[in-house]
Amino acid sequence: MFSIRGRRPAFGVAIAGLMGLVAVAPVAATDMTQTVTAGTRSASIPNLTLPSVAYSHSAVTNTGSMTITADDSTGSNLGWNVTIQSSAWVYSGANSGSNIPAANLSLTSAAAPTATAGQPVDTLGVGGPKVPTISPLGTLDSPRKTVQAAPLFGNGTYTQVLGVSLVIPAQSAAGTYTGTLTTTISAAP
Question: Domain extents for the chain?
Fold first, then answer.
């Protein structure tokens, strides 16, 4: 005769043995690391060439526009500001001529910046990038802040169109006048 009772203990021991294996299985953990390296912060304006003007016995105002490109790829979240400043316009030509002073170049308008990559412009106008509350308009013989971003904003690439005017003094000699426009971007507005 066959007894079921004899099989139960063997089956119960097998289950208890399997449960014991599951309970004592070791757990493995793996640490993971990812490094993000800082990029650079830069601002630039392509060369500015104003249209030629005719010689005049009176002062002549010549207008144009230029575009700043500002990029913050540092990942620092510090915010930034961009300033521009002009040198004098140095005369070169066949005649004796005088330089045009740096103060004769002025900013006449500063458009709101637009994003071309990265973080969008803060549409509420709080963090930016934005035109500073203190107007950037005026002569460029000293640095003028044209665009800024508050901390946690401005992580991307932005452009800003600026209107300019150059007052050419009366009886400026015929020839070419060249100058340098210095564009600077620095952390924290």
Answer: 41-187
Query: Do residues 81 and 60 lie in contact, with contact meaning Cβ atoms separated by under 8 Å?
Result: no
Q: What angle do CA 51, 57, 58 make, to 5 degrees?
A: 70
CATH number of 41-187: 2.60.40
| Dihedral sign, Cα of residue 98, residue 139, residue 40, residue 111 | negative
At 38, the amino acid letter reads: A
Is the link from the previous residue into 129 a cis peptide, with omega within 30 of 0?
yes
Residues in Cβ contact with 100 at an 8 Å cutoff, skipping those fewer than 6 apart? 88, 89, 91, 166, 167, 168, 169, 172, 177, 179
d(CA 142, CA 68) in angstroms, rounded, equals 17
Model confidence over 54-91: pLDDT tens digits?
Answer: 999 999 999 999 999 999 999 999 999 999 999 999 99
Task: Give the type of residue at 66.
Answer: M
In sequence order, which residues have a C-beta less than 8 Å from that of residue 163 and are 6 or more positions away?
Answer: 63, 64, 65, 107, 108, 109, 110
Written as six digits, the tokens of 7 are 């099989």
Q: Hey, CA dihedral for 71, 69, 147, 139, is it positive or negative? A: positive
